[in-house]
Amino acid sequence: LHARIAEQRLAERVNVVHLSDHGMESVMPKNFINLTSLVSAELRYDTYGSTPVLQIVPKVEQDRSELYRQLRRAADADGRFEVYMVENLPARWQYNNTRRTGPITAVAQHGYGFDDMWRTVEYYRKHFGVEVTPDTQYGMHGYDNAQLAMNSIFFSYGPAIREQLTVEPFDTVDLYYLFCEILNLAPPNYLAGNVNHIQHILRNGSRDDDDDNDPNGGGSSDATTRAETIAVIFAGSLIASFAIVSVFALGVIYQRRRREHMVPPYLYEETETFIDDGNKMLHTSTTNSSINGDVVSVDV
C-alpha cells in the first residue's frame, strides 16, 4: 500500500490510517470458570453470548434475585469474574440501554473464560486436530475496554496528520470526528465521541503546531472556506438575476414585435399626426391608403 502510494505520487494528497477494532488476550482451559457449579442446582438459567461476557436469564423470573445473589457471592469469593444486574452495569459500557442485555451479566476477568469455551475447544479439536492441554492458548477479546490489553492500535500519516507525535489513548468512537475533519465534513450531532480528543493529531488542529503556517490553528482556513462559499453564492445569485431579467426583456420585445405584426401594414403608410389646440386630442389620418378602392381613415 505505502509503496503504491509513493509510486503514484499520492503521498502529499492521501491520508493513511491503520487501525484495529480491539486488542487481544490469551485464555487457557485451566482458567475456564464453571458457572453452573457456583449456584444451587434448582436454579435453572440460560446463557447468551460468549466468553468473556455472558447474559444470564433465569428460566423462572422469580428466581432472578436469588440467582444474582448466589452469583454475586461466588464472584466475590472467586475473584475471577464480575456479575451485575442490568440496572447496575457501568454506564461507560452502554450495555444497560438496550433490550438485548439480559437481567444478569457475568464478565470474566482478563485471562479467564466461562465454560462456554469448551464448545470452542471441541470445534478446534474436531476441525483442525488441535490437541488441547490445560495450557493451550486461545485468543480472546471482549474484556473490559478500560484494560490496556484491549486497546486497539492506531497509527497514521499524511498531509493532514502531524508527524512524530505519540498520542494518548482515545475512544474508538472519536475516530468518526477524525475522519470528518480530514474530509472537511460536518459530523452529525448525535455522535458519542469527543472532537477534542483528536484535534491535536491534525496539522491544523493545534494552535502551537510549528509546522502549521496558520497562527489561528486552522480557524482562518475555515473562515476562508466560508468566505469562498458566500462569494460563490453571491456570484450565482447575480448570474441568476441577470438571466431572469434577460428572459423577461426578451419576452417583452417578443410580445411588442408580435403585436406589430398583428396590425395591418396599411395603417403604417404615410401617417400624419397633429395636435388640435382646442381639444388637445391626438388625431391620426391616413392618406393614399385603400383597400378595394375604399379610403380608410383612423381617429384615435
From TrEMBL:
Highest taxon above the source species: Eukaryota
InterPro entries, per the entry: Alkaline_phosphatase_core_sf (IPR017850), Phosphodiest/P_Trfase (IPR002591)
Keywords: Membrane, Transmembrane, Transmembrane helix
Family annotation (SUPFAM superfamilies): Alkaline phosphatase-like
Pfam families per record: Phosphodiest (PF01663)
The keyword Transmembrane helix is assigned to this record: yes
GO terms of molecular function: hydrolase activity
Region (Disordered): 204-223
Segments traversing the membrane: 230-254
PANTHER family assigned to the protein according to its UniProt record, in alphabetical order: BIS(5'-ADENOSYL)-TRIPHOSPHATASE, ECTONUCLEOTIDE PYROPHOSPHATASE/PHOSPHODIESTERASE
Name the record gives this protein: Uncharacterized protein
Species name: Anopheles coluzzii (African malaria mosquito)
